[in-house]
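Blinded run. Sample ID left blank on purpose so nobody reads anything into the name before looking at the predicted structure. Input follows.
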Amino acid sequence: MARFEGRVPLDQVVRVAREVESDLSGAGGVYGAALGEQVESVAAARLADLVAAGEIEPEAEAVPSPRNPS
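Blinded prediction complete.
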């Protein structure tokens, strides 16, 4: 979820990723190594949609991290 780092609050990224994981594993269709890839893909799409719809406010200022130096 590095793509949203510094733009979307971490708690929102974690919440969406957990919801997606629950949805995918609960649907009885995705397990094992494929689950991680699917969670990342679907969560990224959901986060992008939520940001575009204004349902998640982007962070006001990017927060520096080892992967996102400023």
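Unblinding after everyone has recorded impressions. The chain has one domain: 2-52.
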